[in-house]
Design goal:
4 strands
Length: about 70
């Protein structure tokens, strides 16, 4: 999975998502070269879900089926 900057360049390439010790670990490369291992804690996941409205949630689901 790739996340892009507004100018279209690749910001983050996610190579793996793993579960480790009650946390979600996201592995990837920033700007194609610098490796990163980010940990998502349960409290931060709950805070992230609060950012989603129902409209954004359904848009996120429909995004998988768009070209």
């Amino acid at each position: 999975m790739k996340l892009y900057n507004p100018d279209g360049t690749v910001l983050l390439t996610v190579t793996a998502i793993e579960r480790r010790e009650g946390k979600l670990v996201i592995r990837g490369n920033i700007f194609g070269s610098m490796p990163v291992n980010a940990q998502l804690k349960p409290s931060e996941a709950r805070a992230g879900l609060k950012l989603l409205s129902w409209g954004k949630f359904f848009f996120l689901l429909s995004l998988m089926f768009r070209r």
